[in-house]
Amino acid sequence: MNQLFPRAGGISKAVIPAAGLGTRFLPATKATPKEMLPVVDKPAIQYVVEEAVAAGLSDVLMITGRSKRALEDHFDRNYELEEALTRKGDEARLSRVQESSDLATMHYVRQGDPRGLGHAVLCAAPHVGDQPFAVLLGDDLIDPRDPLLARMVEIQEREGGSVVALMEVEPSQIHLYGCAAVEATADGDVVRVTDLVEKPEPSEAPSNYAVIGRYVLDPAVFDILRETEPGRGGEIQLTDALQKLASDEKLGGPVHGVVFKGRRYDTGDRGDYLRAIVRLACEREDLGPDFRTWLRRYVNEEM
Ligand code: UTP
């Protein structure tokens, strides 16, 4: 079990906000958190917890909201199911069922009202304490073959302060993201973040570097979040707090960005969710060959 081998020193805690309303995915998300929607045969959130563990962060705090039962149950034992599979001698499925409960040391805190991502992160303050920590958005899926978080942790440990994940997007798409003004550094994949704007119009965007859902944060962010007024959409925005950190290094050290060029899916967006499923299913050893054959035929005949 990975929790027996936590990272030596440094960053060990991951916070996963999963309390949003998921309105883009209604009605599927009326009674089920969007993070529980399956991507092939695992809920999206399991990929995210696996990513944290793969980067050495096996102490995971999930920020939950409505319908939190499903999230908690997924990472807990299910003795009835395990017994039934044992009786049947179905070892393969038994171990798949046990994977999620053996993965990490899970903690939960409830965000009463979904008052924004910044507010969700602030709910983690008592658990995190005075150490840098990672934040992984529960609906943001980074392809397991394109590791990002370990590099972010490395940069934070070298440079101090906070680190955000950035991805270059089409200028027409920048209004969907937080956007960073950046300066180059000696590392090709690392930039210094000098300013951040939440969901800017393309004409006002300082760059096409979009902030995606991975962060390694200095705990100074909590004090800033406590004083951050609701911003865009009436929500307490994490981007607003990061903007303060980026504009005044004395508050909590510098803000760097690691530029990600791998595969990433926003599973809270229906189109991206479908793309994630098709791509990951095609590449699976067990399902891929048959699925690819069917998909090729479907595309040729129907498109
Ligand atoms: P989104 O911006 O995707 O918002 O949140 P949302 O409400 O979940 O989804 P839509 O836009 O209505 O479809 C980004 C991340 O922040 C979490 C979400 O769960 C998601 O992981 N979040 C957002 C919270 O935990 N609490 C909040 O108050 C808002």
UniProtKB/TrEMBL annotation:
BP GO annotations: UDP-alpha-D-glucose metabolic process
Coiled-coil intervals, chain numbering: none
**N-terminal signal peptide:** none
Residue stretches making up the Nucleotidyl transferase domain: 13-278
**What's in the keyword line of the UniProt record?**
Nucleotidyltransferase, Transferase
* InterPro entries listed in its UniProt record: GalU_uridylyltTrfase_bac/arc (IPR005771), NTP_transferase_dom (IPR005835), Nucleotide-diphossugar_trans (IPR029044)
Its recorded reaction(s) are: alpha-D-glucose 1-phosphate + UTP + H(+) = UDP-alpha-D-glucose + diphosphate
What is its EC class?
A: transferase
Q: What is its EC number?
A: 2.7.7.9
Q: Name one Pfam family in it.
A: NTP_transferase
GO MF annotation list: UTP:glucose-1-phosphate uridylyltransferase activity
Q: Does the keyword Transferase apply?
A: yes
**Taxonomically, which superkingdom?**
Bacteria
The family classification in the record reads:
Belongs to the UDPGP type 2 family.
> NCBIfam families of this UniProt entry?
galU
Q: What is this protein called?
A: UTP--glucose-1-phosphate uridylyltransferase
